Amino acid sequence: MPADKLSSRRALLSGSASLAAAALLPACAADIAQVGAGGGVSSPVALRRNAGAPGPLAGRMLVLVELQGGNDGINTLVPIGQPAYRRLRPAIAIPAEDTIPLDDAQALHPELRPLVAAYGNGEMAIVNAVGYPRPNRSHFRSIEIWEQATDSDRYADRGWVTRALAEHPLLGRGGRADADAIVVGAGTIGPLAGPGTRVVTLRDARQFLAQSEALRGVDLRSDATDSLRHVVRTQNEAVAAAGAVRRKLSGRNRFDRRFGGDPFGRSLALAADLIADGVDVPVWKATIGSFDTHADQPARHARLLGRLAAGLAALREAMIDLGRWNDTLVVTYSEFGRRAAENGSRGTDHGTAAPLFALGGAVDGGIRGAPPDLEALVDGDIRAQTDFRSVYAGILAGWWETPDNFLARQGHQPIAATRQRIA
Fold it and tell me: pLDDT tens digits, residue range 266-299?
């Protein structure tokens, strides 16, 4: 990046509102909002905590789901216990009687009903008010921060998953997987960007089969420069990964009807088919959006959340059928939440913190953290309680069994999402 642009970006960042991230919650914090715990809260959702233990490390899958555009957090996880919610949103607040109560303070948007079974069985965790200090409201810069796991005034040349794989003794370069990651659908590689990661982007199985047949490796002359050797090695690794995936594809569409016909559902159906074919990768990524709901939010947001919930519920069913649900960890993320108050167009503008969901057979379910306090906003924005990098650190420490990961070394206290013990 040119120095003048970098300087102007840093100047903008230094002038933005400060966001204080509170101390982060340990694994036992799932009990904070456990439905029916102690207080006898009546709710249609009974959290049973029947999740199991994950399988061997080499078979575990991380499924990253990007909610592209900036998802509105308080119409996703509705703070029904706070009068300020309806005062701030007279036109777009979700009626309490339409929501799905999780406790007396918070409820799910009604279109998230397909996820009730996972939550009730202790297979879904919700982390409240996730963000980062000195937030940036630019779509491009904020998603870059989330995908690189940097401070808001720092830049990196690699995604956080690329960096984590590079230092992992089993899952990184030289591991047994067919590829490091597969991006299904139309999303970017984002957290998988950077040198050394074997990423396959796949939108349609038949098209991939036709295109990958034409891929060929490149032979090097003995006098090639180091730079050229690096480029050729990277290309050959990509070709090899595509070939490994191609050889396992059966072309069967086992799950199309279960997932539905929207783009997000088709992406997850493709992932499920590949997993059923025995394609072995540690990371999958899918994207749904746009959640950039500046106008006419109620209908648009409901439609998107409905597709998100239906897709994730179908993925859960497919992985249960395949015996892989305990090996699956699904994590959602978005570049930012929305402003606490509605705007004049029955929508919401770019904000800061929002909830993050984690699902899987080995997830330690429940709500982590208190609801965002709508009486204690920061310049009209929700105050972040949890730095997203602590969620990532928990994934690396627990799910990938690397407690000494680069985020933990930076001081980000891991938040445990699964039953895998953090050493």
Answer: 999 999 999 999 999 999 999 999 999 999 999 9
Q: Which residues of 31-58 are buried (b: 16+ CB within 10 A; e: fewer)?
A: eebbbeeeeeeeeebebebebeebeebe
Cα–Cα separations (whole angstroms), residue 56 to 65, 282, 319, 328: 23, 12, 16, 11
Mean pLDDT by 10 residues, the chain (423 residues): 38 27 28 27 65 87 98 98 98 98 97 98 97 97 98 96 94 80 95 91 74 60 61 64 80 82 95 95 97 98 98 97 97 98 98 98 95 97 97 97 96 89 42
Q: Minimal CA–CA distance to 64: which of 247, 288, 244?
A: 288
pLDDT in tens, 67-80: 999 999 999 999 99
Number of domains comprising the chain: 2
The SS3 assignment for 322 reads coil
Angle, in degrees to the nearest 10, between helices 205-213 and 226-248: 130
Residues 245 and 274 sit within 8 Å (Cβ to Cβ) = yes
> What is the pTM (predicted TM-score) of this model?
0.85
Q: Residue 7 falls within a domain, yes or no?
A: no
Q: Does residue 311 sit in the same domain as residue 418? A: yes
The verdict on 40 and 152 lying in the same domain is yes
CB contact at 8 A, 81 and 106 = yes
Bridge partners (DSSP) listed for residue 131: 387
The alpha carbon dihedral of 385, 389, 394, 399 has a sign of positive
Q: Mark whether 393 and 265 lie in a shared domain.
A: no
pLDDT at 217: 59
DSSP classification of residue 58: G
CB crowding 99-121: b at 16 or more within 10 Å, else e? bbbbbebbbbbbbbbbbbebbbb
CA atoms within 13 A on the CB side of 414: 25
Helix (H, G, I), strand (E, B) or coil at 199: strand
Residue 390 domain-assigned (yes or no): yes
- Does 150 lie in the same domain as 28? yes
Task: Render pLDDT for 372-396 as a digit per residue (tens, 0 to 9).
Answer: 999 999 999 999 999 999 999 999 9
- The tokens describing 55, both together, are 């399988």
- CB count within 10 Å of CB 265 equals 24
Check: CB of residue 102 under 8 Å from CB of residue 119.
yes
